[in-house]
Every structure is written in structure tokens, then in C-alpha cells.
Amino acid sequence: MVHAFALFIIAGIAEIGGGYLIWLWLREGKSAYLGLAGGIALALYGVLATFQSFPSFGRVYAAYGGVFIILSVLWGWGVDRKTPDFFDWIGAGICLVGVSVMLFAPRS
């Protein structure tokens, strides 16, 4: 469980950070080196996700989507200095519940 959670967090930071670096390059005119670093981070995200022990690709990536929503709210708060509002937190909480149901529901 700790291993899966750590992979979700590390891969999420790689995905969001990589996208952010490409955003800075293309949208804010920053150095192309940031875009290159962003591309490397996105490739790292793709590799990290394969280390999850859950057997279903679709289920793992759907769960990553929920985790990324939560991490994106936190990224916006910490990096972009955009304070999440009540509805951001409610939406992130709903995503967390959805991810938990998808990954940990008893299945036969």
C-alpha cells in the first residue's frame, strides 16, 4: 500500500511538473531547456506508472487521473500561489473517494 501510494505521488509530480515546464516554455516564453526537461519528466512519469502492482492498465491510469486532480490542486496552491476554494477541495475529495473505490473495492 505504501509502495503504491509513493508511486502515485512520484509519478504525479513527474507528470504535473513535466506539463508545467512545457507550459512555461510554450506559454510564457521561457527557455526551451525547460521544455526539454518537461519532456523528460513526462517520459519518466510513463515509466514510473508501469511499476504499480495493480494488474489492470485502465484501472491504474483512471486512478492516476484522480490522484493527479488532487496533486494539481496542491500544485496550483504551492507553485502558482492560487489558493484552492471550497469547491476545489470538494472536487478533490470526491476524486479521492472515487480512486479508493476503484482500487480497493473487493473483487472476485
TrEMBL record:
<keyword id="KW-1003">Cell membrane</keyword>
<keyword id="KW-0472">Membrane</keyword>
<dbReference type="InterPro" id="IPR003844">
    <property type="entry name" value="UPF0060"/>
</dbReference>
<keyword id="KW-0812">Transmembrane</keyword>
<dbReference type="Pfam" id="PF02694">
    <property type="entry name" value="UPF0060"/>
</dbReference>
<dbReference type="InterPro" id="IPR037185">
    <property type="entry name" value="EmrE-like"/>
</dbReference>
<feature type="transmembrane region" description="Helical">
    <location>
        <begin position="60"/>
        <end position="79"/>
    </location>
</feature>
<feature type="transmembrane region" description="Helical">
    <location>
        <begin position="33"/>
        <end position="54"/>
    </location>
</feature>
<feature type="transmembrane region" description="Helical">
    <location>
        <begin position="6"/>
        <end position="26"/>
    </location>
</feature>
<dbReference type="GO" id="GO:0005886">
    <property type="term" value="C:plasma membrane"/>
</dbReference>
<feature type="transmembrane region" description="Helical">
    <location>
        <begin position="86"/>
        <end position="105"/>
    </location>
</feature>
<keyword id="KW-1133">Transmembrane helix</keyword>
<protein>
    <submittedName>
        <fullName>YnfA family protein</fullName>
    </submittedName>
</protein>
<comment type="similarity">
    <text>Belongs to the UPF0060 family.</text>
</comment>
